[in-house]
């Protein structure tokens, strides 16, 4: 995406599927379809208006084909890019390009997972690396624990600072009626919880839930007739750093340091312009890494940035206002839900958790073991 395409496309509809535990009779494609119909209702379009489908799921090998069959769609454009939790920011970038090139008019981005209702291993199969497997890591937690341990060693980041990420997420979640977690969480509770992969406890790790979502994207011109306020795509950036954690060049610097600047350049904004940031929080170390790599603070200062409520309600930056993957919902791949929260914040639809100034939002997705990084920046109409 270049500066010429800034604001060319807009998000006009968003919705979640049912979240939490959806029962034994729902499939990932059921959840995709459910979210799709809700997102179409959100923007006032019909299923017949959709002519592009983007989908990914760890449980469904051929996501776009299965969803199209389920919904009776025969789209002009399809994309099944699967790079983990950041897939949906990548889908958004590709949808914007396809709309600009005239390859489609109305794009659907969808996701669904039943990882809570079925065994986690069946829902999220893990690739076996023969060079790592002999050490018997608990994946993906052990991979993120390596990054956390290195960050602590190199920059003095503390367990308390990691815990503060989980505490902030919970404080936001308590303001979100759809969030899974309903009880307050203290730093002491995080530190005292069961160790999973040192230095990460179970409270440093994301939820394991069912759920999904959908997003409708169209041209800025067509978006003017949508039912609700259109939110424009200002810029996107994509980058991949490695596949396995043992192939990561520097455990403290992710490819967000590449995707972020690309998105900022396309959007014509910088970190100081962002009002709310949805940063993929599969583990408490990831928001710290992304705050640094996306330019909200210097490398090594992420721990201090989040300490003592820095990203909680009333803190220096509104981060993961829905409660994030740590306390709201993490259905295997979280990126689409992060973007949905951005859209709702910019529309002013978030009730008790609504931030004051809400013109520009950033959603950052992470896939694999800090492997794929994709950044999307959204703006209200006044930002064009």
Question: Per DSSP, what share of the residues sits in E-state strands of 2 or more residues?
Answer: 15-25%
CATH fold annotation of the largest domain: Peroxisomal Thiolase, Chain A, domain 1
* Corresponding CATH architecture of the largest domain: 3-Layer(aba) Sandwich
The major sheet is characterized as: 10 strands, mixed
Keywords: Transferase
Organism: Rhodopseudomonas rhenobacensis
InterPro entries: Thiolase, Thiolase-like, Thiolase_C_2
Domain Thiolase C-terminal: 237-379
Sum up the structure in keywords.
single chain; 384 residues; alpha/beta; Peroxisomal Thiolase, Chain A, domain 1; ten-stranded mixed β-sheet; two-stranded antiparallel sheet; 13 helices; 33% helix; globular
Please write out the topology.
Blueprint: E1 9-16, H1 28-43, E2 52-55, H2 63-71, E3 77-79, H3 87-100, E4 106-113, H4 120-123, H5 141-155, H6 159-173, H7 187-192, E5 195-197, E6 200-201, E7 211-219, H8 220-223, E8 231-240, H9 256-267, E9 276-279, H10 285-293, H11 302-306, E10 318-319, H12 324-328, H13 335-347, E11 360-367, E12 372-379
Parallel strand pairs: 2-3, 2-4, 9-10, 9-11
Antiparallel strand pairs: 1-7, 1-8, 4-7, 5-6, 8-12, 11-12
Helix pairs in contact: 1-2
General description of the model:
By secondary structure, the chain is an alpha/beta fold. It has 2 domains: 3-120 and 209-232, Peroxisomal Thiolase, Chain A, domain 1 (3-Layer(aba) Sandwich), CATH 3.40.47; 139-202 and 236-383, Peroxisomal Thiolase, Chain A, domain 1. Helix content is 33%, strand content 18%. It is built from 13 helices and 12 strands. Strands 3-2-4-7-1-8-12-11-9-10 form a 10-stranded mixed β-sheet, with helices on both faces. Strands 5-6 form a two-stranded antiparallel sheet. A hairpin with a 4-residue loop joins strand 11 and strand 12. It is globular and about 55 Å long. It starts with 8 loop residues before the first strand and ends in a 5-residue tail after the last strand. The relative contact order is 0.20. GO terms for molecular function: acetyl-CoA C-acyltransferase activity. Keywords: Transferase. Pfam families: Thiolase_C_1 (PF22691). Residues 237-379 form the Thiolase C-terminal domain. InterPro entries: Thiolase, Thiolase-like, Thiolase_C_2.
């Amino acid at each position: 995406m270049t500066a010429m395409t800034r604001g060319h496309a807009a998000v006009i509809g968003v919705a979640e599927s049912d979240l939490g535990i959806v029962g034994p009779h729902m499939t990932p494609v059921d959840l995709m379809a459910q979210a799709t119909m809700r997102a179409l209702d959100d923007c006032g379009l019909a299923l017949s208006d959709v002519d592009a489908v983007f989908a990914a799921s760890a449980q469904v090998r051929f996501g776009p084909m299965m969803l199209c069959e389920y919904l009776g769609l025969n789209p002009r454009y399809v994309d099944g890019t699967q790079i983990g939790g950041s897939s949906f920011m990548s889908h958004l970038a590709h949808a914007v390009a396809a709309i600009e090139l005239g390859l489609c008019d109305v794009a659907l981005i969808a996701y669904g997972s039943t990882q809570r209702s079925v065994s986690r291993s069946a829902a999220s199969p893990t690739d076996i690396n023969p060079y790592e497997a002999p050490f018997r890591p608990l994946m993906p937690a052990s991979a993120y624990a390596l990054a956390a341990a290195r960050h602590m060693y190199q920059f003095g980041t503390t367990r308390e600072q990691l815990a503060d990420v989980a505490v902030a997420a919970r404080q936001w979640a308590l303001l979100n009626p759809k969030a899974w977690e309903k009880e307050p969480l203290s730093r002491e509770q995080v530190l005292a919880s069961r160790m999973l992969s040192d230095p990460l406890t179970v409270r440093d790790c994301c939820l394991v839930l069912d759920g999904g979502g959908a997003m409708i994207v169209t041209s800025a011109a067509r978006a003017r007739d949508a039912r609700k306020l259109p939110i424009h795509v200002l810029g996107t950036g994509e980058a991949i750093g490695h596949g396995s954690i043992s192939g990561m060049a520097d455990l403290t610097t992710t490819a967000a340091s590449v995707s972020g600047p690309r998105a900022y350049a396309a959007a014509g904004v910088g970190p100081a312009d962002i009002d709310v940031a949805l940063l993929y929080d599969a583990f408490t170390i990831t928001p710290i890494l992304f705050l640094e790599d996306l330019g909200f603070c210097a490398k090594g200062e992420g721990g201090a940035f989040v300490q003592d409520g820095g990203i909680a309600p009333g803190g220096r930056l509104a981060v993961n206002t829905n409660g994030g993957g740590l306390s709201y919902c993490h259905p295997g791949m979280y990126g689409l839900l992060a973007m949905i929260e951005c859209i709702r914040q910019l529309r002013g639809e978030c009730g008790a958790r609504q931030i004051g100034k809400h013109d520009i939002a950033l959603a950052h997705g992470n896939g694999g073991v800090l492997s794929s990084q994709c950044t999307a920046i959204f703006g209200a109409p006044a930002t064009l």
